[in-house]
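Support request from a user on the community tier.

User writes: "When I paste my structure tokens into the form, the page sometimes reloads and wipes my input. The last time it worked, I copied everything first. Here is what I submitted, just in case something in the input itself triggers the reload:"
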């Protein structure tokens, strides 16, 4: 539906069908002229943990009519969604306040792996909050896109480095677990050697 002049009213007409669709996993509502009412409807497609299956990928790029109240509501839904893996919010005027809410949502989410915040009016203040989140809280996040914001390249690089460190640690742990499962007779304690 990307780029269609859907508006909140159009989404309200589609919402009943979307909410009962048995296999809807990706939804692109970028540049659809949505506002806060549309975001409220979308939050219903991100059910809380275990409630029912929901979206795994959501694109809401370029919907400048959404206010910080609407983005705050979305952040809460993302924090409690057990399904969402990819969230694209690029080219929305989010600013630092909304970025702070999103950082809390990402820190709470056990599933969100990709967050696109390109061109969203963020500054180093947002980057420091996001850096703190990545540095100090375990998260599933693997990709955070911050291009075209007023964020120093150094901060962007620090965040990127920390995200790739997490990937490397996970891969190492997965290999170790696989090795132990395949070779249960390998002693993990070197005292018996």
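"...and here is what came back when it finally went through:"
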């Amino acid at each position: 539906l990307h780029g269609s002049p859907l508006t909140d009213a159009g989404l309200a007409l589609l919402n009943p069908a979307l909410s009962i669709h048995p296999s809807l996993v990706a939804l692109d509502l970028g540049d659809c002229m949505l506002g806060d009412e549309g975001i409220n409807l979308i939050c219903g497609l991100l059910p809380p943990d275990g409630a029912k299956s929901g979206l795994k990928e959501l694109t809401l790029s370029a919907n400048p009519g959404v206010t910080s109240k609407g983005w705050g509501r979305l952040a809460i839904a993302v924090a409690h969604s057990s399904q969402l893996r990819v969230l694209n919010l690029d080219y929305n005027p989010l600013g630092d306040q909304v970025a702070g809410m999103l950082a809390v949502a990402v820190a709470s989410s056990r599933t969100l792996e990709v967050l696109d915040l390109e061109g969203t009016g963020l500054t180093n203040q947002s980057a420091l909050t996001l850096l703190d989140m990545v540095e100090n809280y375990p998260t599933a996040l693997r990709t955070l896109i911050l291009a075209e914001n007023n964020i120093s390249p150094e901060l962007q690089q620090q965040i990127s480095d920390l995200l790739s460190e997490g990937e490397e640690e996970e891969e190492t742990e997965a290999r170790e677990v696989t090795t132990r499962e395949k070779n249960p007779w390998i002693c993990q304690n070197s005292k018996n050697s």
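Agent notes: The reload is a front-end session timeout and is unrelated to the input. The domain at 6-169 is CATH 3.80.10.10 (Leucine-rich repeat, LRR (right-handed beta-alpha superhelix)). The chain has one domain: 6-169. Escalated to web team.
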